[in-house]
Amino acid sequence: MIWSFAALCAVVVVGLEGPRILRNAERAHDLDPRTMLALWTSATVAWVLSCGALLAVLAAELLGPSVKGILAACLSLLQALERNHAGWGIGGGAALILAASLRLLWIAMRQGRAGSTWRRAHHRDLLATAQRHHLHGHSVWLLDTDERGAYCVPGPRGGVVITRGALGTLTAAQTRAVLAHEQAHLRGRHHLLVGWVRLLDRAFPGIPLFRAAARDVPTLVEWAADDRAVRDVGMHPLVHALGSLAQAVSADPRQSLSIGGACPIERVRRQIERPTRNRPRRRRTWTGLTAALVMTPLALTVASTFAAALIPHCQCAG
After folding, report:
1. What does pTM read for this prediction?
2. Are residues 256 and 303 in the same domain?
């Protein structure tokens, strides 16, 4: 029971203080956006797995004879509850797991259906109003409108969309920077990361870790795509492109990733005022320590699972 209590405390701490831990690590040790995306994803996944596993372990400990009691309870639940006098604890834990799983599944289905419907409708609009065009070695959808905009849509029928208004504003180098930015989104599957944290925040809106992830991850994917564009084309073309497309249009910010996403001023300042980076070894050390902190709930939950399975249950004489 000690391991389970420690795991429960770790889940509460990371759920409440996880955002502060991650943001302090980013600011103090200059962790790059890709590293921060990995840390945010690991923290949210580990937290979800820890909660589910911890509830199962607590139910097993209430049942008595190790984890095998859960399987026995599934076959003869009423007898198990009567024998162990733990009906409220086990029933409540099972109901909580079921309710959380069903809510997560329901929100995921709604979110996935909405995205699929929007992408089909958007593809029909592109077929009617845009044409395929090869631009600087990239196949893009060229949208015939004077509005300035560039964004990408995931999926086999998606890709990079850019308007004639944007091409009329950007130079050749700036256009390459925009295309490199959007291609970085597609190659990095950034829509999956953003969709994951938004799913958790919608399903469980009261969790500070999920609320912070839904706010920070969309910004981090823009930073990561900016860094890729800078490596491919250079800083100045990207900075000027961000200024030209600061008010870039996007088909739907919930379903696409636009060059005008996040705060353009902050993104430009980040590129111009790059701090002196810490030594790689020191960054790796702090990355490992931060990862260990946010993964602590899962590690303790695994430890409590092994303890419940291996340590015999004590039937003390009354």
Report:
1. 0.84
2. no
> Does 260 lie in the same domain as 165?
yes
* CB-based contact 43:35 (threshold 8 Å): no
Q: Over the Cα atoms of the chain, what is R_g?
A: 24
At 131 the three-state DSSP class reads strand
246 vs 92, 102, 160, 267, CA distance in Å? 51, 40, 18, 10
If asked whether residues 282 and 268 sit together in one domain, one would say no
Residues 74 and 149 in one domain: no
Tell me which residue of 278, 276, 232 sits closest to 29, measured CA to CA.
Answer: 278
Question: What does the DSSP assignment read for 51-70?
Answer: HHHHHHHHHHHHHSSSTHHH
Number of domains in the chain: 2
Mean per-residue pLDDT pooled into runs of 10, the chain (318 residues): 80 92 88 93 92 74 52 51 53 70 88 90 89 90 90 88 92 95 94 94 92 95 95 94 82 80 88 72 87 90 72 52
